[in-house]
Amino acid sequence: MARMTRGTAFAILAALFAAASAAGSATITVINGNQAGVGFNDPTPATPVGGNTGTTIGQQRLIAFQHAADLWGALLDSSVEIRIRATFEALDCTTDTAVLGATAPNQAVSDFPNAPFPGTWYPAALGNRLAGQELSPNADDVLARFNVNLGNPGCFDGIGWYYGLDNNHGNKIDLVAVLLHEFAHGLGFLTFVTDQGVEFQNQPDIFERNIFDDTTNKHWTEMTEAERGTSAVNTGHLLWDGPTVTAMAPQFLGGTPALTIDSPASVAGNYIVSTAAFGPDVSEDAISGGIVAAIDPADVAGMSTTDGCTAFSNASLVAGKIALIDRGSCDFVDKSANAEAAGAIAVIIADNVPNSLPPLGVRENAPTIHIPTVGISQADGATIRAALGGSAVSGRIHINVRMKAGEGSGGRLKLYAPNPDEPGSSISHWDTSAFPNLLMEPNLTGSLPHTVDLTLPLLYDIGWRPDTSPAPVARSAIQTTTGGGEPKVVTPRP
Length: 494
Hints:
494 residues, alpha/beta, Glucose Oxidase, domain 1, 2 domains, eight-stranded mixed β-sheet, five-stranded mixed β-sheet, 10 helices, globular, disordered N terminus, disordered C terminus
C-alpha cells in the first residue's frame, strides 16, 4: 500500500495542538445508543489490541470511540459538553465497497446569543460553544452510525475493523482514523445545502458562507438556488475561502503528481492525474520514457484489447516504456501487474467515464507492484491515444513542485465537486487531488495517521476559534431544527 510522507504536517499540527491547549479543551462524551447484546454491547470476547484494553468487541468499540473523542476534545475549546450519540448498525455494503460510517449534527441552530452571523445555521455543538450555554438541553449534539457488518460475508469481505489505538491496522480499516473523519462532520465540516443547491429552510449555513466558485467569482451565499446547483458540479473550481485554511494549506500539501507529455507538440503539457494506493509513490525524480498503448487479448478476463486484463500481446513494445491502459473489466492492481510483467517502467490508466479520474485503490492480498501507476481522465486518455497513431509520444510521471496538490486559484483549497454529484460526498469534503491525502477526503486511504491536518483550520474558520469560550449568558429565544442534509459517508477506495 502506498504511504504518504507527512513530516511537515506533523510539525504544524503540533503548533495547532499548542494553540488549542493554551485556550482550554472540550469535553466530548460518547453516548451508547445500542440495545443490549449488539454494537457497543456485543459480548463477544476479544483480545486487547494496540492499547485498547477492552475484553469484548463492544468494549473495544466504545474505548476506540472515546479515544477519538478525546483527541478532538484536546483540540477544541468549549465550556459546554459535546454529546455524540453513537450506534453500530447495518449500513450499505457490498463485497467490494462499504459505507463505514454516517455522522451529522443532530440539530442546526441559528440566531442564538453571540451568534457571529444572524440568519445562519450552525451545527449544534458549535452553536453551544459560541453561545456559552446548552441551547437544547434535552438533545444530543451529534449522531454517529457505524457499520456493524464490516468484514462479514457480503460486506467488504475479509476486511473488518481494527480497534487498536496505535494505527497499526495492517489490512484492516482503522476505526480511530474513520472516527476522526466522521466526528469532524458532526462538529461542522459539512454544509446543510443539498447537492442541488437548496438551502435548509431557505437560510444559509456557516460552512456555505466559505464556499467560493472561481468561475462565477461568487460565494454560495451570493448565488441563486439554480446557480448553487450548477456550482456544485463545477469540478476543480469550487474552493474553500476561509483564511485559516488558506494560510495553512501550503505547509500541509506537497507538489502535484502530474503526467507531463514532452512530445509531440500537439499534445505536450501537464495532465492532471490520480495516484495509486499501491506501488511506489510518484516522486520528484521523474519516470521518463516513451508511451505505448498496451494490447492484450479480448477474453473472459476483459473483453477489450486495451484493458490490460491479461498478459500483453505487445510486451516487446511495452518493455522499457510507460504503458497506457484503459479502465474497465478487471482490478487496477491486475492491470499494473500485467504491465510490470511486460517490462513497463510505469502505468497510465485512462478512465472509462467522463469528468473523473480513476480511484486507484488496492484490494486485499494484492500482488506487490514495483512501478508507479497514475490515472487520467477519459478525455485525456483519448487525446494521448490518438497521438500514438501518428508519432512517438514521450512523457514523464513526476511531482510538479511548483503547484501544491489540491490548491485552486488564490491558494484556496479545492472542495470535492464531482460531476455528476455524489450524494453524501459532494461539497462536504476536500477534493481528492490533495496530496498527501487529507483526513476529510471522501475516500479514506489506509495510510492516514491519527491526526487532523487541515480539518482543524477549517473548524477554526467556521467558529471553533482557539480562544476562551464566552461566559454563559441567560438563554433567550432560539430557532432550532432537527436534521440537516444527507449523512456524510466514507467508503474505501474501490
